[in-house]
Amino acid sequence: MTTPLPGFEGLGAPAGGAPRVRRQLAPGAVHVPDWLDLPAQQELVAACREWARGPVPIRHTKLPRGGVMSVQTVCIGWHWQPYAYTRTADDVNGAQVAAFPDWMVELGRRAVTEAYGDAAAGGGYTPDTALINFYDEAARLGMHQDKEERSGAPVVSLSIGDTCVFRFGNTENRAKPYTDVELRSGDLFVFGGPSRFAYHGVPKVYPGSGDPACGLRGGRLNITMRVTGLG
Ligand SMILES: O=C(O)CCC(=O)C(=O)O
Ligand SMILES: [Fe+2]
Questions:
Q1: CA of residue 146 to ligand 2 center, whole Å
Q2: Residue 199 domain-assigned (yes or no)
Q3: Fe2OG dioxygenase domain location, by residue (predicted)?
Q4: Which atom of ligand 1 lies at the shortest distance from residue 201's CA?
Protein backbone atom coordinates (compact mmCIF):
# COMPACT_ATOMS: atom_id res chain seq x y z
CA MET A 1 0.00 0.00 0.00
CA THR A 2 1.53 3.29 -1.06
CA THR A 3 0.79 6.60 0.58
CA PRO A 4 -0.26 9.18 -2.00
CA LEU A 5 1.92 12.25 -2.18
CA PRO A 6 0.18 15.28 -0.71
CA GLY A 7 -1.87 16.87 -3.45
CA PHE A 8 -2.05 13.68 -5.53
CA GLU A 9 -4.70 11.80 -3.54
CA GLY A 10 -7.18 12.03 -6.40
CA LEU A 11 -4.78 10.82 -9.10
CA GLY A 12 -6.66 8.65 -11.57
CA ALA A 13 -10.04 9.64 -10.22
CA PRO A 14 -12.72 11.51 -12.19
CA ALA A 15 -13.49 14.91 -10.69
CA GLY A 16 -15.31 14.21 -7.46
CA GLY A 17 -15.63 10.51 -8.29
CA ALA A 18 -14.32 7.27 -6.88
CA PRO A 19 -10.76 6.18 -7.70
CA ARG A 20 -10.37 3.92 -10.73
CA VAL A 21 -9.06 0.88 -8.96
CA ARG A 22 -10.20 -2.74 -8.67
CA ARG A 23 -12.97 -2.86 -6.11
CA GLN A 24 -15.17 -5.50 -4.52
CA LEU A 25 -18.64 -4.00 -4.05
CA ALA A 26 -20.04 -7.05 -2.28
CA PRO A 27 -18.83 -10.63 -1.87
CA GLY A 28 -18.49 -12.00 -5.43
CA ALA A 29 -19.11 -8.62 -7.11
CA VAL A 30 -15.92 -7.07 -8.47
CA HIS A 31 -15.28 -4.03 -10.69
CA VAL A 32 -12.00 -4.05 -12.65
CA PRO A 33 -11.55 -0.67 -14.41
CA ASP A 34 -9.73 -0.48 -17.75
CA TRP A 35 -9.47 -4.23 -18.18
CA LEU A 36 -9.73 -4.25 -22.00
CA ASP A 37 -7.12 -2.28 -23.93
CA LEU A 38 -8.13 -0.32 -27.03
CA PRO A 39 -7.34 -3.08 -29.60
CA ALA A 40 -9.39 -5.59 -27.55
CA GLN A 41 -12.29 -3.13 -27.43
CA GLN A 42 -12.05 -2.58 -31.19
CA GLU A 43 -12.10 -6.34 -31.86
CA LEU A 44 -15.17 -6.81 -29.66
CA VAL A 45 -16.96 -3.92 -31.35
CA ALA A 46 -16.22 -5.46 -34.77
CA ALA A 47 -17.50 -8.88 -33.65
CA CYS A 48 -20.65 -7.36 -32.13
CA ARG A 49 -21.30 -5.36 -35.28
CA GLU A 50 -21.34 -8.62 -37.27
CA TRP A 51 -23.66 -10.33 -34.76
CA ALA A 52 -25.96 -7.30 -34.83
CA ARG A 53 -26.53 -7.97 -38.56
CA GLY A 54 -27.64 -11.56 -38.12
CA PRO A 55 -28.58 -14.36 -38.32
CA VAL A 56 -30.79 -12.71 -35.70
CA PRO A 57 -30.67 -8.93 -36.11
CA ILE A 58 -30.27 -6.68 -33.07
CA ARG A 59 -33.66 -5.39 -31.94
CA HIS A 60 -35.59 -3.78 -29.12
CA THR A 61 -36.79 -6.83 -27.17
CA LYS A 62 -40.58 -7.11 -26.99
CA LEU A 63 -42.01 -7.31 -23.49
CA PRO A 64 -44.92 -9.61 -22.58
CA ARG A 65 -47.25 -6.68 -21.85
CA GLY A 66 -46.73 -5.11 -25.26
CA GLY A 67 -43.93 -2.63 -24.64
CA VAL A 68 -40.37 -2.82 -25.89
CA MET A 69 -37.08 -2.40 -24.10
CA SER A 70 -35.21 0.85 -24.78
CA VAL A 71 -31.96 -1.12 -25.01
CA GLN A 72 -31.27 -3.02 -28.25
CA THR A 73 -30.10 -6.60 -27.83
CA VAL A 74 -28.64 -9.46 -29.84
CA CYS A 75 -27.70 -12.81 -28.29
CA ILE A 76 -25.16 -15.49 -29.13
CA GLY A 77 -25.08 -19.11 -28.00
CA TRP A 78 -28.63 -18.99 -26.69
CA HIS A 79 -31.39 -16.50 -27.44
CA TRP A 80 -32.86 -14.69 -24.46
CA GLN A 81 -36.35 -13.24 -24.51
CA PRO A 82 -38.49 -12.41 -21.49
CA TYR A 83 -38.15 -14.73 -19.67
CA ALA A 84 -36.46 -17.79 -21.14
CA TYR A 85 -33.58 -19.03 -23.29
CA THR A 86 -34.20 -20.78 -26.60
CA ARG A 87 -31.98 -21.82 -29.53
CA THR A 88 -34.10 -19.98 -32.08
CA ALA A 89 -35.24 -16.37 -31.90
CA ASP A 90 -38.95 -17.01 -32.23
CA ASP A 91 -39.84 -13.45 -31.20
CA VAL A 92 -37.62 -11.98 -33.97
CA ASN A 93 -37.18 -14.00 -37.16
CA GLY A 94 -37.12 -17.62 -36.04
CA ALA A 95 -33.43 -18.01 -36.91
CA GLN A 96 -30.91 -19.91 -34.82
CA VAL A 97 -28.55 -17.53 -33.01
CA ALA A 98 -24.83 -17.37 -33.84
CA ALA A 99 -22.56 -19.85 -32.06
CA PHE A 100 -20.72 -18.79 -28.92
CA PRO A 101 -17.09 -18.66 -30.06
CA ASP A 102 -14.20 -20.36 -28.24
CA TRP A 103 -12.28 -17.08 -28.06
CA MET A 104 -15.09 -15.62 -25.99
CA VAL A 105 -15.01 -18.60 -23.60
CA GLU A 106 -11.30 -17.83 -23.18
CA LEU A 107 -12.03 -14.14 -22.57
CA GLY A 108 -14.63 -15.07 -19.96
CA ARG A 109 -12.11 -17.35 -18.22
CA ARG A 110 -9.50 -14.60 -18.11
CA ALA A 111 -12.11 -12.19 -16.77
CA VAL A 112 -13.12 -14.45 -13.87
CA THR A 113 -9.48 -15.26 -13.11
CA GLU A 114 -8.62 -11.57 -13.00
CA ALA A 115 -11.66 -10.38 -11.05
CA TYR A 116 -11.41 -13.07 -8.38
CA GLY A 117 -7.63 -13.51 -8.44
CA ASP A 118 -8.45 -17.21 -8.76
CA ALA A 119 -7.14 -19.19 -11.75
CA ALA A 120 -9.13 -22.30 -10.74
CA ALA A 121 -12.40 -20.35 -10.71
CA GLY A 122 -11.51 -18.85 -14.10
CA GLY A 123 -10.44 -22.17 -15.61
CA GLY A 124 -13.70 -23.81 -14.58
CA TYR A 125 -15.82 -21.12 -16.19
CA THR A 126 -17.50 -22.04 -19.49
CA PRO A 127 -20.00 -19.40 -20.59
CA ASP A 128 -22.39 -20.54 -23.32
CA THR A 129 -24.41 -17.38 -23.96
CA ALA A 130 -23.90 -13.65 -24.14
CA LEU A 131 -26.40 -10.82 -24.31
CA ILE A 132 -25.02 -7.93 -26.31
CA ASN A 133 -26.78 -4.71 -25.41
CA PHE A 134 -26.53 -1.40 -27.23
CA TYR A 135 -27.56 1.79 -25.43
CA ASP A 136 -28.23 5.00 -27.34
CA GLU A 137 -28.57 8.20 -25.33
CA ALA A 138 -32.20 7.42 -24.45
CA ALA A 139 -31.70 3.78 -23.37
CA ARG A 140 -31.94 2.63 -19.76
CA LEU A 141 -32.20 -0.72 -18.06
CA GLY A 142 -34.41 -1.09 -14.99
CA MET A 143 -33.40 -3.00 -11.89
CA HIS A 144 -33.65 -6.75 -12.52
CA GLN A 145 -32.05 -10.09 -11.69
CA ASP A 146 -30.37 -12.30 -14.31
CA LYS A 147 -32.25 -15.41 -13.28
CA GLU A 148 -33.23 -17.39 -16.37
CA GLU A 149 -29.93 -19.29 -16.09
CA ARG A 150 -30.02 -22.64 -14.30
CA SER A 151 -26.52 -22.12 -12.96
CA GLY A 152 -24.92 -20.12 -10.20
CA ALA A 153 -21.81 -19.43 -12.31
CA PRO A 154 -20.76 -15.77 -12.46
CA VAL A 155 -21.94 -13.19 -14.98
CA VAL A 156 -19.05 -11.44 -16.78
CA SER A 157 -19.88 -7.93 -17.99
CA LEU A 158 -17.75 -5.92 -20.43
CA SER A 159 -18.47 -2.30 -21.30
CA ILE A 160 -17.35 -0.33 -24.37
CA GLY A 161 -18.10 3.22 -25.51
CA ASP A 162 -20.05 5.74 -23.48
CA THR A 163 -19.75 5.75 -19.69
CA CYS A 164 -22.81 4.69 -17.70
CA VAL A 165 -24.01 4.50 -14.14
CA PHE A 166 -24.31 0.83 -13.21
CA ARG A 167 -26.50 0.30 -10.16
CA PHE A 168 -25.64 -2.82 -8.20
CA GLY A 169 -28.14 -3.73 -5.53
CA ASN A 170 -29.08 -6.47 -3.13
CA THR A 171 -30.55 -9.94 -3.69
CA GLU A 172 -33.89 -9.15 -1.98
CA ASN A 173 -35.52 -6.42 -4.06
CA ARG A 174 -35.02 -3.49 -6.45
CA ALA A 175 -34.74 -0.94 -3.68
CA LYS A 176 -31.85 0.25 -1.52
CA PRO A 177 -29.28 -0.67 -0.46
CA TYR A 178 -27.49 -0.38 -3.78
CA THR A 179 -24.19 1.03 -4.95
CA ASP A 180 -23.75 3.15 -8.09
CA VAL A 181 -20.54 2.63 -10.00
CA GLU A 182 -19.39 4.28 -13.23
CA LEU A 183 -18.61 1.76 -15.95
CA ARG A 184 -16.36 3.17 -18.66
CA SER A 185 -15.02 1.81 -21.90
CA GLY A 186 -12.88 -1.24 -21.20
CA ASP A 187 -14.25 -1.91 -17.72
CA LEU A 188 -14.96 -5.41 -16.45
CA PHE A 189 -17.58 -6.22 -13.83
CA VAL A 190 -18.09 -9.76 -12.53
CA PHE A 191 -20.92 -10.84 -10.26
CA GLY A 192 -21.06 -14.33 -8.87
CA GLY A 193 -21.15 -16.23 -5.59
CA PRO A 194 -23.45 -14.56 -3.03
CA SER A 195 -23.96 -11.64 -5.48
CA ARG A 196 -24.97 -13.73 -8.48
CA PHE A 197 -28.67 -13.00 -8.14
CA ALA A 198 -28.37 -9.39 -7.00
CA TYR A 199 -30.65 -6.83 -8.66
CA HIS A 200 -28.84 -4.46 -11.00
CA GLY A 201 -29.58 -1.91 -13.72
CA VAL A 202 -28.34 0.99 -15.82
CA PRO A 203 -30.15 4.21 -14.84
CA LYS A 204 -27.98 6.56 -16.91
CA VAL A 205 -25.66 6.71 -19.91
CA TYR A 206 -23.51 9.81 -20.54
CA PRO A 207 -23.84 10.61 -24.27
CA GLY A 208 -20.59 11.53 -26.00
CA SER A 209 -18.42 10.36 -23.10
CA GLY A 210 -16.78 7.48 -25.01
CA ASP A 211 -13.63 7.70 -27.13
CA PRO A 212 -14.52 6.93 -30.78
CA ALA A 213 -11.12 5.16 -30.99
CA CYS A 214 -12.82 2.18 -29.24
CA GLY A 215 -14.63 1.58 -32.54
CA LEU A 216 -18.03 3.00 -31.56
CA ARG A 217 -18.96 6.43 -32.87
CA GLY A 218 -21.49 6.83 -30.10
CA GLY A 219 -23.52 4.92 -27.56
CA ARG A 220 -22.61 2.17 -25.15
CA LEU A 221 -22.05 -1.51 -25.79
CA ASN A 222 -22.32 -4.05 -22.99
CA ILE A 223 -21.65 -7.77 -23.26
CA THR A 224 -22.77 -10.09 -20.45
CA MET A 225 -21.53 -13.65 -20.64
CA ARG A 226 -23.41 -16.28 -18.68
CA VAL A 227 -23.64 -20.02 -18.14
CA THR A 228 -27.22 -21.06 -18.97
CA GLY A 229 -27.00 -24.51 -17.40
CA LEU A 230 -29.18 -25.73 -20.29
CA GLY A 231 -28.24 -28.76 -22.38
O1 LIG B 1 -25.53 -2.97 -19.54
C2 LIG B 1 -25.15 -3.42 -18.45
O3 LIG B 1 -24.16 -2.99 -17.87
C4 LIG B 1 -25.95 -4.50 -17.77
C5 LIG B 1 -26.72 -5.39 -18.71
C6 LIG B 1 -27.59 -6.35 -17.97
O7 LIG B 1 -27.79 -6.26 -16.80
C8 LIG B 1 -28.24 -7.46 -18.70
O9 LIG B 1 -28.10 -7.57 -19.93
O10 LIG B 1 -28.90 -8.29 -18.05
FE1 LIG C 1 -28.69 -8.08 -16.05
A1: 5
A2: yes
A3: 126-229
A4: 7
Beta carbon of 121 within 6 Å of any ligand 1 atom: no
**pLDDT tens figures, 10-65:** 444 445 577 899 999 999 999 999 999 999 999 999 999 999 999 999 999 999 99
> Are 205 and 163 spatial neighbours (Cβ–Cβ below 8 Å)?
yes
| Structural domain boundaries, residue 199 | 23-226
Going by C-alpha positions, the residue among 220, 216, 230 that lies closest to residue 148 is 230
CATH number at residue 130: 2.60.120.590
Q: Is the CB of 58 under 6 A from ligand 1?
A: no
Residue 17 lies in a domain: no
**In this structure, is residue 8 part of a structural domain?**
no
At 161-180, the pLDDT tens digits run 999 999 999 999 999 999 99
Atom of ligand 1 nearest to the CA of 224: 9
In a domain, 5, yes or no: no
